[in-house]
């Protein structure tokens, strides 16, 4: 107990642990543990033959970057370049706010949601509309012991909200489109 | 090529994408032979990580065969079987030169606080990941390593993150002989952290989770005591009781931003996204350890703020240690541990899923169905 100076006794001795657990204590000495200490200056240790790497060309337009960077780092990912309204929001978030500002991250999250709708529209336009049944993988439920797997778990309390998280934006989008259509219809009938 | 593609929160599909091209002289293109879904991929899947774009391919745990290399690559050639650390590292920046390979400053334009990671949103650099038939691997002379002949493919793929990270979690705990170690989370990282705590001389290892099948694995695979937090009104008090009211010497958070155990935190953090996830496990760790203890954080957290109990951490004089694991630095020692059987990563694999059925794989893993602990993804071209 914490009220006395000695540490409470352990249930097993080192000998018992060594006999029971394969490899017990083989890395007891911190010198045997890798990446200790965290920082060891050795610039030639990891295969780089350059002091600064060659620069990757910007093939997909000006690459967005954090304003905390002094310049565009020499190598970067090329997945999903900025596009559409979500791209404009993201560009603004990167150009205007540092990583230290909540606005930076909240704008990026907002852009993610806009991107989802843009993706829905673009995919439908390409003739491959999104299918929430196959894309959510729920068809796996039938052969994955859905009831037994969930018995006695605390996360089932909030998992019931998942369909709302997935389906909510679809419902909202549908309601928005419907409201716009109704408004347009009324406007046209007034003119007529 | 066929690739997993993100379509929005909780929605992914496999579709046709262009085979990646050499973008930089030190790039390699790797044909993926085996990949995995990581627990941290679920943060992306659930829409928690800012700047996760529709059309990106996830996957930071993969192995494969070198298909082509850029003109400056010297250490690899087409046909080599390689394992690729989840970190992308230039090998020469301020951080890489000091061995902090997870914190490279030359590979992520989108954020300075985090390095480059395959398939982990634009917040980590906007690289496509390995849940695909092919993947671009930057700095081929720095990251990838040829898989030793004796190593099983499933061990190799799990060494690219889960195993290295689990060991690193125990290592950051600065465990000394006889320490009482509490591991939060009995997923693959937590299971390896528990195993590794023994290698470092722990006197007791206690694993906390609420999934009975994973706790059973923690007992059998990691020789640990287990606590099902769902069976206790207050798991912090229970952990105090079973540690003579002193508390653990070391806690390792292997859960991260989507911890269960507090309904309001879950709804506010992971459903409504009002904060950067649900840091329940980290808060339990802070409260359950003794004063002066060390907490190692291996669970993934995003850049959005979370309600973490720093006041208790300060008043208890805790040391909080954390980082993404510098996988390549861990490998030489971990290869020894796998070869001599002290670590057995492939024993954690429960599901092997074709790439074409990856949406179902994510659902099974996310919903913790069918006893799922570690799902692997097998590309059709493998």
SSE topology:
The complex is a heterodimer of chains A (about 190) and B (about 375).
Chain A (H helix, E strand, L loop, with lengths): L13 H7 L63 H13 L5 H24 L6 H4 L10 H5 L5 H4 L2 H30 L1
Helix pairs in contact in A: 2-3
Chain B lengths: L1 E7 L2 E6 L11 E9 L4 H5 L15 E9 L11 E4 L2 E2 L27 E2 L16 E4 L7 E2 L6 H7 L2 H11 L7 E5 L3 H12 L4 E6 L2 H11 L2 E4 L6 H8 L5 E6 L9 H9 L8 H9 E9 L12 H6 L3 E4 L4 H13 L9 E6 L3 H9 L7 E5 L4
Parallel strand pairs in B: 10-11, 10-13, 11-12, 13-14, 14-15, 16-17
Antiparallel strand pairs in B: 1-2, 3-4, 3-8, 3-17, 4-5, 5-9, 6-7
How would you describe what is shown here?
The complex is a heterodimer of chains A (about 190) and B (about 375). With about 190 residues, chain A is mainly alpha-helical. Chain A has a domain of about 50 residues. Chain A is built from seven helices and no strands. The radius of gyration of chain B is 20 Å and the shape is globular. Chain B folds into two domains: about 210 residues, Alpha-Beta Complex (Quinone Oxidoreductase, Chain A, domain 1); about 160 residues, NAD(P)-binding Rossmann-like Domain (Rossmann fold). In chain B, the strands form four sheets. In chain B, strands 3, 4, 5, 8, 9, 16 and 17 form a seven-stranded mixed β-sheet that branches. Helices cover about 25% and strands about 25% of the residues of chain B. Chain B is built from eleven helices and 17 strands. At the A-B interface, helix 1, helix 2, helix 3, helix 4 and helix 5 of A face strand 2, helix 4, helix 7, helix 10 and helix 11 of B.
């Amino acid at each position: 107990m914490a009220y006395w100076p000695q540490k409470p006794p352990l249930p097993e001795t080192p000998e018992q642990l060594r006999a029971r657990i394969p490899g017990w204590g083989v890395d007891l000495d911190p010198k045997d543990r890798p990446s200790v200490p965290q920082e060891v200056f050795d610039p030639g240790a990891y295969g780089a033959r350059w002091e600064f790497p060659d620069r990757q060309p910007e093939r997909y337009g000006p690459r967005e970057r954090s304003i905390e960077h002094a310049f565009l780092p020499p190598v970067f990912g090329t997945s999903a370049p900025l596009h559409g309204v979500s791209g404009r929001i993201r560009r603004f978030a990167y150009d205007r706010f540092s990583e230290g500002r909540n606005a930076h991250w909240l704008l990026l999250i907002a852009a993610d949601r806009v991107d989802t709708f843009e993706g829905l529209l673009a995919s439908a336009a390409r003739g491959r509309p999104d299918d929430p049944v196959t894309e959510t993988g729920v068809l796996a439920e039938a052969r994955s012991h859905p009831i037994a797997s969930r018995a006695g778990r605390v996360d089932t309390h909030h998992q019931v909200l998942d369909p709302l998280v997935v389906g909510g934006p679809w419902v909202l989008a549908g309601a928005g489109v419907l409201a716009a259509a109704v408004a347009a219809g009324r406007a046209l009938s007034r003119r007529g | 090529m066929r690739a997993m593609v993100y379509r929005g929160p909780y929605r992914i599909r496999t579709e046709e994408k262009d085979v990646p091209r050499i973008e930089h002289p030190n790039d390699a293109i790797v044909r993926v032979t085996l990949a995995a879904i990581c627990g941290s991929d679920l943060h992306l899947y659930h829409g928690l990580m800012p700047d996760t774009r529709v059309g990106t391919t996830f996957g930071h745990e993969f192995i494969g065969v070198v298909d082509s290399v850029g003109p400056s690559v010297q250490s690899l050639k087409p046909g080599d079987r390689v394992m690729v650390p989840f970190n992308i590292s230039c090998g020469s920046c301020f951080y890489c030169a000091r061995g902090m390979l997870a914190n490279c400053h030359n590979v992520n334009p989108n954020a300075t606080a985090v390095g480059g990671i395959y398939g982990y949103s634009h917040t980590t650099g906007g690289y496509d990941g390995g849940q695909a038939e092919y993947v671009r691997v930057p700095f081929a002379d720095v990251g990838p390593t040829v898989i030793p002949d004796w190593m099983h493919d499933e061990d190799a793929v799990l060494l690219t993150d889960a195993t290295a990270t689990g060991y690193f979690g125990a290592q950051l705990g600065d465990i000394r002989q006889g320490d009482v170690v509490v591991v939060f989370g009995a997923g693959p990282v937590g299971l390896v952290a528990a195993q590794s705590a023994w290698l470092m001389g722990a006197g007791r290892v206690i694993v906390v989770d609420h999934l009975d099948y994973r706790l059973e694995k923690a007992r059998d695979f990691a020789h640990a005591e287990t606590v099902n937090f769902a069976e206790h009104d207050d798991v912090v008090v229970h952990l105090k009781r079973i540690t003579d009211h002193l508390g653990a010497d070391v806690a390792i958070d292997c859960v991260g931003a989507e911890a269960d155990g507090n309904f309001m935190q879950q709804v506010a953090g992971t459903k409504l996204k009002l904060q950067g996830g649900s840091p329940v496990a980290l808060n339990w760790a802070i409260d359950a350890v003794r004063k002066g203890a060390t907490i190692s954080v291996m669970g993934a957290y995003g850049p959005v703020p979370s309600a973490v109990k720093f006041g208790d951490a300060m008043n208890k004089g805790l040391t909080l240690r954390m980082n993404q694991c510098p996988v390549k630095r861990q490998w030489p020692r971990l290869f020894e541990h796998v070869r001599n059987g002290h670590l057995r990563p492939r024993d954690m694999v429960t599901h092997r899923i074709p790439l074409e059925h990856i949406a179902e794989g994510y659902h099974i893993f996310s919903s913790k169905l069918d006893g799922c602990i570690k799902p692997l993804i097998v590309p059709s071209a493998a």
